[in-house]
Amino acid sequence: MLKVCMNVTDQCDCLAIECPIAYSTSVEEKEACYMEHCFISKRALDDVTLYKVTALYLVIFIIGVFGNTATCLVMRKHPMMKTHTSMYLINLAVSDLVTLCVGLPFEMMMNWHQYPWPFPDFICNLKALIAETTSSVSILTILVFAIERYVAVCHPLYLVKNQFFKRNVSLGNGNGGL
Q1: Quick check: 37 and 14 in contact, CB under 8 A?
Q2: CATH number of domain containing 108
Q3: Which tens digit of pLDDT belongs to each residue from 91-111?
């Protein structure tokens, strides 16, 4: 605790102002000065809620990995599933798998140990990039699927005339795709 802030009624406000002045050369010391006295807890949640959230995250992780992996395997192996729609579903399943395997463990870890971030800064940035990318991929996949369904229902002859939509989608047989 800085001497200047010892007898002040709102010590956290004082430390927020004085710590950057006292420790102007080191970012870590600035953060430690403030966080040591003003950060409520290293955990984001109380113990009972934390255990419930962790159990829920584990259930979501197990069901999500199992379901999305099964979706990818069924779509890849079954010969009748090599369509545009199945490609959209595979795209969504892979996006969900990346979110589950990259994002969920970090979120659970942050609930258990909120401060300080134990990894290098680039991992925090990479985590955010992956989260935003998978979210965008899911949204754009659903958008493209909706547009294709709209064209199929409202303008069915357009699909017959347009050669682009006549091609079959191949999965893993060397002609592109997964």
Answers
A1: no
A2: 1.20.1070.10
A3: 899 999 998 998 888 888 887
